[in-house]
Amino acid sequence: MTKGPSTLNNRSSFLIIGLLATFVAISALGGAGKRIEAAQVSKTELNPTPRLVSVVPLPEPSGPMCEFPDDARVTQVAALLEQGPAAPSSAGQTTKFPIDAERAPVRVIHDTYPGYSAVSVDNNSNEVYLQDENLFGLKVFNRLDNTPATARFTEPKRVVGGLLTKLEFNCGLYVDPKSGDVYSVANDTVDTMVVFPRGAAGNVKPGRELATPHGSYGIAVDEEKQELFITVEHENSVVVYRKNASGKDKPMRMLSGDHTGLEDPHGIALDTKNKLMFVVNHGNVAYRSTPGVPGDPAPGGNRQYARGSGKFEPPSITVYPLDANNDTPPLRTIQGPATQLNWPAAMYMDAERGDLYVANDMNDAILIFRATDTGNVAPTRVIKGPKTGLKNPTGVFVDTQNKEVWVSNMGNHAATVYPLTANGDVAPLRMIRSAPAGKVSLSIGNPGAVTYDTKREQILVPN
Model's pTM, two decimal places? Predict the structure, then answer.
């Protein structure tokens, strides 16, 4: 059979496979002294010398060259892999190595004490709630508890925690000033805001749940309008729900877009007196190449980000109208080296005094700005120094009724309390410790890998 050069080139691989198959078949038949039917070659006995019988063109390939194995074959292969490696025995057979799936580790590096990400006070019950992001739960203390210097720690009066609670990587905390309902926002795994009634204890199911965007962090509530505000880190947005939203209810509106100035937003505070919203940003941002439909309240949507647009900006506080929606730019921005902002976390607005409190994580400080500040402005007050007991503060709450400022510290397993007008390196009025004095947090949170530095003999854990 004669073919043109182009056709031969296109099918060369198929011809080679056919020739090899024919060669193997004919050799086997000749070596065994077999005869082949006349319809195939002839009635004479085949010569064991290989020879080309025929060339049959194969059809042009179409579709996938290899099929993905069906479920049965996948299961079979997986079962074989789980059997483990085999080693030769003395009899020349194979023997499976034993697999100890329950083998205990040589040692464990794990912080066994609470790490407090947020704090809130319930003045009706005279209790303080501390959100434990390390052991996943809520610890409740009497507001006037004070750990003696000689005590190992103070026991909470009750604890909420366990698989039923859905408290995981819980960072945002709000306690309803009237009902005492406790709202907790998860930042990572469960993507759920949970609500517990006052007095809840143990491994209990939430009274209400709300599906939230992945990467939610801060929470604030407008009690007058019954609206719930949540910041979303990864989407650079603020989503607003009805306060009593539950299940898969969608937001009423969403502040999001390239012009909002939202850059990895964390803490949020509301000034309902002057109808303003304050958001604090870490500074990570990427710009959208295909913005969502204006007014579309679905976080995530089909948004895409322009390649190469990701960048790091200095931390900032951006200010908006309370009812801001869509791609609304900020009214003003507090940003610059004078602000001292460094991984700012939770915020709280004392609207009566016009003071905005910021938990400044990496600076071990509480920064207080005026609500009217703008630009590269220094805080009016700073609580900072060795006497303060502050270590990686991420939560702050202003108890205007008792004129106290509460701070939750991720770095030393403690909550500290200060006078409302505190400034500088001041000792706390009280401290609730949940670990021995001087015990520093290991700061292991959602580790994704681990490696070992042989030169310094150190274990490196990225979180």
Answer: 0.76
